[in-house]
């Protein structure tokens, strides 16, 4: 009789329970060998659609496909042993409807074995987040600067500088949390807004250029290494 090796990984509920506690450490990885290295130090490894820019030299993340995410997600799962592996839903794979998002997310989780997916957007994606979480798919949100919308927002710019813009992003954060996300990435917002979001939402915030006051931080591994 074969005995399957038991691997104890962090889960979405484990991360959710870290709100206000020990800071969450999160890095990106796109390969088995970098995942193996990062796994020793990370609570979460993100297979980000940033792989399009880091690995393939694309100008934005927009051209990244679902097949690309699944291929690299499989590789990362082979290298990671304890970190929660989260995989991005790429542009065009989830925006049309909650049903489309479910099919994309289910395919990612079935084919890679990852523990959660991440999608961009605030209030406009709240219905989709709720739809996925009610069907057993853990979702990490992503608000502030959303790279998949770079063509709409006019480039990679810090968000939330005006009171009106900050209020919109805060509403996005509250909507994402209320819809059932277990955590959210807060990207490129002014520091006071990052701190306010962290104080007002009941789930962990993971900052990237947002604020040291977030519940955790994420970096692209290659950026961290210079």
Structure explained in plain terms:
This protein is α/β, with parallel strands linked by helices and 226 residues long. The protein is built from ten helices and eight strands. The chain has helices spanning 12-16, 32-39, 51-54, 66-79, 98-112, 126-133, 150-153, 163-179, 191-200, 221-224, and strands at residues 24-28, 44-47, 84-88, 116-118, 139-144, 183-187, 205-208, 216-219. The protein has an eight-stranded parallel beta barrel with strand order 1-2-3-4-5-6-7-8, surrounded by six helices. Helix 5 links the parallel strand 3 (84-88) and strand 4. Helix 2 crosses helix 4, helix 6 packs parallel to helix 8 and helix 8 (163-179) packs parallel to helix 9. The longest helix is centred in the C-terminal third of the chain and has 17 residues, at 163-179. The radius of gyration is 16 Å and the shape is globular. The model has no long low-confidence stretch (mean pLDDT 92).
In short:
The protein is α/β, with parallel strands linked by helices.
Secondary structure: number of strands: 8
Low-pLDDT ranges: none
The arrangement of helices and strands along the chain is: HEHEHHEHEHEHHEHEEH
Shape: globular
Could you give the distance between the termini?
48 Å
Main sheet strand line-up: 1-2-3-4-5-6-7-8
* Major β-sheet annotation: 8 strands, parallel, barrel
Label the structural class: alpha/beta
Helix content range? 25-40%
Average pLDDT number: 92
Q: Whole-number radius of gyration?
A: 16 Å
Beta content comes to 15-25%
Tally of DSSP helical segments: 10
Chart the SSEs and their pairings.
Layout: H1 12-16, E1 24-28, H2 32-39, E2 44-47, H3 51-54, H4 66-79, E3 84-88, H5 98-112, E4 116-118, H6 126-133, E5 139-144, H7 150-153, H8 163-179, E6 183-187, H9 191-200, E7 205-208, E8 216-219, H10 221-224
